[in-house]
Structures are given as C-alpha cells and as structure tokens.
Amino acid sequence: MKLFSYGPITQMAATSSDVYAFRVAGNIDDDAAGALAEFMNKVFDERERVSMLLDLTAYTGSDWDAMFDGDVIESRFRALTKVAKYAVVGAPDRATKMIGIMDKIIPVEAKAFGVHQTDKAWAFVGAAPADSHAA
User: Are 82 and 47 in contact (CB under 8 A)?
Assistant: First the structure.
C-alpha cells in the first residue's frame, strides 16, 4: 500500500489498517490541506470508522485559506461520524485547549498529547508505528 505524502504531510504506517497517522513537518498551505482532505474523504467512502493520529511536533503553522477549501470542509464534517478516536501529538497550546473542549461536545473521542507522549497517543488510537516497507 502506498502511503499518502504531499508537501509537509506524510502518512506514517500503522500496525492497524483502521488507523491513519500523519506527520506534519512545516507549514500547511491550501494545496496540502486539500490533498489530505481529498485522501481522507476517499478513506471515509471506503471505511465505516477509522481512528486518526496527527503528529504536529514539527508543524510550523497553516495558511488561513487552507481552512476554506471545499474538500477540507467536507472532510471535517464527515470526520464527526467516521472517526472514532483522534490523537494529536505536539499541538500548539491553543489547539490543545480546543481539542479538550471539542472532545466534550463532538462524537469523536479526541485527545492532545505532549511532544514526549507519542507512545501514549499511539496506544490511545489502538495501534503502533509500523515499518513502512512492511505495509
């Protein structure tokens, strides 16, 4: 299986086929956000439920227009019914607070983890990193 990669976003192989994990290294622009959203919308078409892990330890920000892409908006709404667990590692403080609030009001179990809690984040979504050559 070929893993997703576009600009600063790279999919990490997981030991569970129901877990989609991504590392963001740099700034997410409109094209990268749209490409990831398009990829996840295809996943949502094929899978009943998945869990997601997002590693933001090397994230530097997002362009404002990245939020307004049609595929991005669609994937965020679909995630409410398609994502069981959502883990974020190394989120900025503002995002960590938002994840804590959203966990209480959306039907997705969401948690933020510190930069040194990657193993806990993987355990939360029910998988571990896999060798990408074995996937």
Answer: yes
pTM of the predicted structure, to 2 decimals: 0.92
CA pair distance 65, 67, nearest whole angstrom: 5
3-state class of 68 per DSSP? helix
CA 88/CA 103 separation, integer angstroms: 12
Residues written for the chain: 135
Q: What is the 3-state secondary structure (H, E, C) of 40-66?
A: HHHHHHHCCCEEEEEEEEEEEEECHHH
Alpha helix stretches (DSSP H) within 1-129: 30-46, 70-82, 93-105, 118-125
Q: Which residues pair with 52 in a beta bridge?
A: 20, 86
Q: Which of 22-31, 49-58, 99-108, 116-125 has the lowest mean pLDDT?
A: 99-108
Q: Tokens 């019914």 — which residue?
A: 81
**Which two tokens mark 134?**
């074995």
